[in-house]
Amino acid sequence: MSRDKTNQKSIRSMIQENKSSRSQSAVMEKVVPKIFLICAIISIFTTIGIVFTLLTETFTFFNRISIVEFFTNTRWFPFTSDENADFGIIALIMGTLTVTAIAMVVAIPIGLAAAIYLSEYASAKTRKIIKPILEVLAGIPTIVYGFFALTFVTPLLDKIIPGGISIFNALSPGIVVGIMIIPMIASLSEDAMNAVPNSMREGALALGATRFEVAMKVVLPAALSGVIASFVLGISRAIGETMIVTIAGGSRPTADINVTESIQTMTAYIVQVSQGDTGYGTTIYYSIYAVGMTLFVFTLIMNLLAQFISRKFREEY
Amino acid sequence: MPLINKESVKKRMGTRLAANGFAKFLFILATCFSLLVLGVLIYRILSEGLPYLSLDFITNFASRMPERAGIWAALLGTIWVMAVTAPVSFILGVGTAIYLEEYAKKNAFTKFVQINISNLAGVPSIVFGLLGLTIFVRLLGLGSSVLAGGLTMSLLILPVIVVASQEAIRTVPREIREASFGMGATKWQTIRRIVFPAALPGILTGTILALSRAVGETAPLLVLGALAYVAFVPENIFSQFTVLPIQLYNWTSRPQEDFHMLAASGIIILLIILLIMNSIAVLIRNKFHKRF
């Protein structure tokens, strides 16, 4: 009898517990999605934060330096007295574009060739060895590449190039930025080529084409949108690259480019200012936001262009 | 009359095969170039860095004298920043991924969030530094503290974690979800007990790889105003700090050869840390990854 009672009690309490836990879980069902939604919204706030901070501080900057002068003046000498200071971003843009161009000359042929080799020639076994090594190369911090550019590539170029090269120059960081981007172009291009169906390759091979002809006349045209998108993303990475150009590129902004001489990129300028003792509220302080804004717009256009190319010109099989 | 002129095909065959062989040679050469660069890079760093590498180098503070300089402050600074970045970016990243994969309806807002994340991934890291400088350092008044640095880094690697987590969640098959629903589990119970555990190895792998990127990142923290010369260890999340890459940058940018060798020693430590993190990530991927 007494045992029965306790049993009843426990069943009742079980039902009670079940009820309360059910109402608890009903609350959870409603609250949890909201919490996750907030997480998702934070990523939007990050973008808004970036655009908002860049815009407001850039606006303050343009109140002091006219926007026309900013985009037409070719001299960038901010660290003199206020009346003599020049804020012509063309000098910094030229530095950035020079490094980017050199990087692309290195990265596009080598990256694409590696991608063709991996997707069209290499056996599965070779690919299994080479791909992780490329991943390692992609994972090396840029500060290490910067060190490599300054202490190895620059002295090497100094020996090779007749007439020598200055310690800080555009060529060495350009080459090293290119090396840094090779894995990215190689792996993105290879993905695009792997997406081309095997039946197309086999069809061409059956008609008597060599592997090279298959790669060049069948696979590459079919994968072109993805390949070009990888180039554009590579350009975007090169434009935004900071440490390599800061360490090995120097800090002499100039619009007439000589690749063996010191230059300054947009990113390197931002680092230079934040390393110095520039006070909050000075024109120089605001100038890093104007430069940052220009940099942001450059990379954003490149990223959108890459998305557009891979979406618009994709061949579906 | 034959459809194929065998003579002309035969004549061209030699050049075509030669072109194929030559091109293959060039492609292999290009691939080997990357491997060669990696080899030279590692050789250079080991040959320059090993002489200064010792236990004292790890436990000493930075110093003006190369033979007494060490990376203790930088090493602990990196650990402190990661201690902030890891939980913040993990919670935000996985939360966003679960929302996008499990809860979000297919509408304009979801698409916008998705496009926004892929665009954030392409923003240069130095721009995140400007964001952190304005919002965390100045607006919220955190100063150039561990907290400000950690939060900035969290936002920087957030897109990587979101994308990796989304992919991991997507590999969980619909059947086991439906089985869970069929047994009466609610949506949140299914996510918490079925989907999340199944996706966890993939999520962890992605998170560790993202964190290893943050460990090597220099530019945003330089812009935030992280110190370059530090002779103390952070005491709490509001302390000023330096991190390993910034210490390396500081040594690299000095003209003396001795400091370059110090930088190389520091790079060895940094690469060892990254190697360990990546190995753990690969280990998790291989060991715990379930195939459905």
Tally of contiguous helical segments of chain A: 12
Largest sheet of chain B: none
How many distinct beta strands of chain A?
2
CATH fold type of the largest domain in chain A: MetI-like fold
Structural class of chain A: mainly alpha
What CATH first level of the largest domain in chain A would be assigned? Mainly Alpha
What does this structure look like?
The complex is a heterodimer of chains A (317) and B (292). By secondary structure, chain A is an all-alpha fold. Chain A has 2 domains: 2-64; 86-312, Orthogonal Bundle (MetI-like fold), CATH 1.10.3720.10. Helices cover 77% and strands 1% of the residues of chain A. Chain A contains 12 helices and 2 strands. Chain A has helices spanning 2-64, 67-72, 90-121, 124-139, 142-160, 171-194, 198-206, 211-222, 224-240, 243-249, 266-275, 283-312; strands at residues 76-77, 86-87. Chain A has a two-stranded antiparallel ribbon with strand order 1-2. The model of chain A has no long low-confidence stretch (mean pLDDT 89). Chain B has 292 residues and is mainly alpha-helical. Chain B folds into 2 domains: 6-52; 58-288, MetI-like (MetI-like fold, Orthogonal Bundle). In chain B, helix 3 (72-103) crosses helix 10 (244-252), helix 5 (125-139) crosses helix 6 and helix 8 runs antiparallel to helix 11. The radius of gyration of chain B is 25 Å and the shape is flat. The relative contact order of chain B is 0.14. The chains are: A mainly alpha (317), B mainly alpha (292). Chains A and B meet through helix 1, helix 3, helix 4, helix 5 and helix 6 of A and helix 1, helix 3, helix 4, helix 5 and helix 6 of B. Chain B: It comes from Fictibacillus norfolkensis.
